[in-house]
Design brief:
- The structure is a single chain.
- This protein is mainly β and 384 residues long.
- It is built from 5 helices and 20 strands.
- It has a 9-stranded antiparallel sheet. Strands 2, 5, 6, 7, 12, 17, 18, 19 and 20 form a 9-stranded antiparallel sheet that branches. It has a two-stranded antiparallel sheet with strand order 3-4.
- It is globular, with a radius of gyration of 20 Å.
- The chain starts with a strand and ends with a strand.
């Protein structure tokens, strides 16, 4: 997940704020493009079918397994190698993803039988203040991109969707169904293509509408590698260490039908939307080879109120735990990647959290603390 990532929002979702931060190491200069002011479905044909089959990570022999069973946290060393496997061959397998997840606010701990490291505990959002120089987060982090719906402003972001080449607008359909339509500039409501970059409007992204967020640095110089000729192409968000802050709600619309009342927020390896996210030929996309998808807050069936978090890559990770869908009020959330710890953290923040131009190191450090005592966070650990 240290490669460039794109951010995806599917309605019904009301995005109020979005920001991306990097540590002040000098390696991430602020994008220099000027600030902006005021239908293709996320059908997951090649995603959700596989998700439901492969959402849970297998455990390697020798891995420590921690789980909450009937309200008690228990642990053991995994000795099961799978049917037909000998101890010697099993021991040679690499360790898999370890995930520490918590159940939603206001919900009792859920019994988890998932073969991943899982823990559940009492609710309560965190106020970020603890300092720990050993985490790698110490030192200020600077905001590289920021969107504010109420102000109608965006700096460092480009809003896209999947209507490339339709009605003479931006992007292309060259390549046919195998590739699908390329990325296009999104209209302000995300429901159609635009001729040029627009700021996402201060309104709910409607059911079954997907908006893709990239940086405002174009790929015109070829620096993104292969992209669709004639398509709209921008860089994603790269780096071993990066932070996404967002404020959003997921209103319940009561609608039915394909992808209706199924909001979602997820990250993709940017190679996927830059080449073929919804083509009919899976060989045109690196998704099936494990280049990476990270579901942050996703409703998997119509009208549900459990937001699941799942990692789809090699290895994969997930559990039966969930965040409560923010139906009526917005929540603020952080998604933090810490390469030095081989971990990714999802955390629901206190309402007082601000999206300042820079964040102190102790704010970042607190996001990497052991989250087993909170029902407001999930930790995905990649171990070798």
């Amino acid at each position: 997940m240290n490669e460039e990532l794109s951010i995806h929002f599917r309605g019904p979702t009301f995005l109020k704020q979005l920001a991306v931060y990097y540590p002040d190491s000098g390696s991430h200069s602020k994008r220099s493009s000027p600030a902006l002011t005021h239908f293709h479905r996320h059908n997951h044909q090649h995603l959700h079918d596989l998700k439901r089959k492969n959402a849970l990570a297998e455990r390697a022999v020798g891995d420590t397994v921690i789980a909450t069973i009937d309200g008690r946290v228990v642990s053991w060393i995994n000795q099961y190698a799978g049917p037909g496997a000998s101890p010697s061959t099993a021991a040679a397998q690499p360790a898999k993803v370890q995930t520490t997840l918590a159940t939603s606010v206001g919900s009792p701990p859920q019994k988890s039988t998932a073969p991943v490291q899982a823990s559940s505990a009492a609710a309560g959002s965190k106020q970020l203040s603890v300092v720990d120089d050993s985490t790698g987060g110490s030192g200020r982090w600077s905001r590289q991109a920021y969107y504010n719906a109420e102000a109608g402003s965006s700096d460092g972001f480009t809003f896209l969707n999947h209507f490339g080449g339709t009605n003479g607008m931006s992007g292309t359909t060259d390549g046919g169904p195998a590739f699908g339509a390329s990325l296009s500039y999104a209209s302000s409501d995300g429901k159609s293509a635009a001729r040029s970059a627009q700021v996402l409007a201060n309104k709910m992204i409607e059911d079954d509408v997907e908006v893709v967020v990239m940086s405002n640095k174009t790929c015109d110089d070829g620096s993104c590698g292969y992209t669709r000729p004639g398509g709209v192409a921008y860089h994603g968000f790269e780096g071993d260490h990066k932070l996404f802050l967002m404020e959003f709600s997921m209103p319940a619309t009561g609608k039915t039908g394909f992808n209706a009342d199924m909001p979602g927020i997820w990250l993709l390896n940017a190679q996927i939307p830059l080449t073929s996210q919804y083509g009919t030929n899976p060989k045109c996309s690196c998704w099936t080879s494990g280049c990476g998808e990270f579901d942050l807050f996703e409703i998997l069936d119509t009208g549900n109120f459990r937001c699941k978090s799942t990692l789809h890559m090699a290895p994969a990770g997930g559990s039966s735990d969930y965040f409560q869908r923010p139906e009526k009020n917005t929540i603020k959330a952080a998604v933090l990647f810490m390469g030095s710890q081989e971990s990714a953290h999802i955390q629901v923040l206190d309402d007082s959290q601000t999206f300042d131009e820079s964040l102190a190191g102790e704010v970042i450090d607190a996001m990497t603390k052991d989250s087993s005592g909170s029902a407001m966070s999930s930790v995905f650990r990649l171990t070798s």
